Amino acid sequence: MELAYSGASNLARVLREGHFAVAAEVGPPIGPNPAVVQRQITQLRGYADAYNTTDNQSARVHMASLAASIMVKQAGLEPVLQFTCRDRNRLALQADLIGAASFGITTVLALSGDHVSMGDHPHAKPVYDIDSLNLVRMMRMMRDGPVFENGETIPKIAPDFFVGAVENPFAPPYEFRPVRVAKKVAAGAQFIQTQSIYNVPRFREFMARIVDLGLHEKVAILAGLGPVRSLKAIEYMRNDVAGMDIPEWIDARFAKFTAKEDLEKVGLELACEMAEQIREIEGVRGLHIMAVNWTAVIPQIVTALGLHPRP
Amino acid sequence: MSLRTYIQDHPKPLVWAWELTLRVLGWSRPVFARVGLERASWWLRTLEMIIKKPLFDCQECGQCVLHYTGMTCPMTCPKQLRNGPCGGVRANGHCEVYPEKWCVWVKAWERSARTPYRAEMTRLNAPVDWRLEGLSSWVTHALERDAITTGNDPAVRHADEVLEGRSWN
C-alpha cells in the first residue's frame, strides 16, 4: 500500500512495510496517578505498534490524553493521541496539537466524541466548534501547508502528523458510513480505526463497500477488537455506550460460567475467533485492540494470533 | 407525524422554493452590496426566520447548507455536525442524545435522495464561521460571505477525487 507520508510514525512504517498492524488502547486513569499508565505500558510493551490514549472516554473526566501520550512517548513507544472535538475549540485543538508535536507525538486520531449528556458532566457545555472531518482537514493543513486553520503560516517547523479518523460500521445510516470514510480520506485521513466489532457479518458488508469504492487502497483500516469477560460488561456496553452492536449469541457463550478464570478463557477465545475472521476480510490492514480494564488480555491475543513479536 | 416532518420528507416544493430564492438572491446582490451585510441582514433576517424556524427548526447559523443536507438542518444535531452522522446513532436510527428523536443525518441521507442535490452528500462542508451567527444566510450567501465551501482550504471540496467516479449511491 502506498502511503503518502514520509514522517517518523512507527504505525505508518509498519503499514508501509506491509505488515498486519496492531494498535492497543491505554486508558488514562480518572485521578492523577501516573502508575496506572506506567503499568499498562509495562504490560503492553512489545505487543503493539502504537498505543492509543483515550480522550475523556465516554465523556467522563480522565487524565488528559496528551499527558498519557507523553508518558507512552517517554517510555520509548509510539502513542496514538486520541483527540475529540467535544471539549476544545479551534484554538485549544491547535494549541494541544502543536504541544503534542513538540513532544514528538504526531500520530493523532480525530473523533467527534461522545456527547457530554452521556457522561459525568451532563451540565457542561459541549463545544463541537468543528467536526471530526474538519479536525482531520486541519491536521493535514497544519502538516502540508503548513498553515493554521485561519490560513496563517506555521513558523519554521511543520508538525509531522500521521492523521487518523474513526468510523462506526454498526450505526445507521449504514450506506452512508463508507461514503463518510471517503469524505474523511478526502479531508486527509491516512488510517481509520473502527468501533469494536462484535457483529462480524455487518463489518464484512461494510468492508465490501469500502473495497468497491477503492478506499482500502487509499487508507489503512484497523479493525476494532473489544475483548470482554463478563455479561455485566456486555450489558453495560449494550445499554450505556453509544453505537455498540453486540449480538445476543455472545451472551450465551458466557452464560454457562461463573468462575473468573472460565469467563476470562471464554473472553479470550471469543476475541481470538473474531480476530481470525476479521483478519481474513479484504482491506483490513490491522487490529485496534480496546480492552477496557483488562489490559492483560492484549498480549495473550497478540501472541495467540501469531502477531508477536512486532516488526 | 408532524407537518414539519411531512414537508421535509417530501422536499420537492422546498427544492423549487430554494431554486427561486437563489434566483431572487442573484438579482438582489447589488442592493445587498450597497446596503451592506449587517443592514441587509437586519431586514431579511426576520422574514427568513418566519419561514425557516417552523419549517426547519432553524438555528440561525447564518450560513445555510440545507440544500446540501437533504433539506434537514445539521445545526439541529446536538453535536452540530455538518459532515455526516456521528458514531453514536442508535440501531433504530435515533439520536444518541435524544432517544425519542431521529438522527438528523439519518433523515438527511434519506431525504437528499429525493432532491437534485444528492451528490452534495460527499461535499466537505467547512466549519461554522461563528461571526455570521444571527445574520441572514440569504444575505451572507448572496454576498459570498458564507464559508459553505471550505474556508481556507480551497484544494479539497468534495470526496469525488477519492471516489474516482465509483458509484456510491
How would you sum up this structure, described in words?
The complex is a heterodimer of chains A (311) and B (169). Chain A has an eight-stranded parallel β-barrel, surrounded by six helices. In chain A, helix 6 crosses helix 7 (200-212). Chain A is globular, with a radius of gyration of 19 Å. Chain A is built from eleven helices and eight strands. Chain A has helices at 10-16, 34-44, 65-74, 90-102, 132-144, 176-187, 200-212, 231-240, 249-255, 260-279, 297-304; strands at 21-26, 50-53, 79-84, 107-111, 162-167, 191-196, 220-225, 284-289. Chain A is of the alpha/beta class. The relative contact order of chain A is 0.14. The two termini of chain A are 17 Å apart. Chain B is mostly helical and 169 residues long. Chain B contains six helices and no strands. Chain B has helices spanning 3-9, 12-35, 37-56, 104-112, 137-142, 160-163. The mean pLDDT of chain B is 92. Chains A and B meet through helix 5 and helix 6 of A and helix 4 and helix 6 of B.
Total E-strand runs of chain B = 0
> Structural class, from helix and strand content of chain B?
mainly alpha
Number of strands of chain A: 8
How are helices and strands ordered from N to C of chain B?
HHHHHH
Oligomer: heterodimer
- Tell me what portion of residues of chain A adopts beta-strand conformation: 5-15%
Shape of chain B: globular
Q: Greatest interface and its residue counts?
A: A-B, 49 and 43 residues
Number of helices of chain A: 11
Compute the CA-based radius of gyration of chain B. 16 Å
The percent range for helix content of chain B is 40-55%
Calculate the terminal CA-CA distance of chain A, rounded to whole Å.
17 Å
- Catalogue the unreliable spans of chain B: none
Helical residue percent band of chain A = 25-40%
Structural class of chain A: alpha/beta
Strand ordering within the main sheet of chain A: 1-2-3-4-5-6-7-8
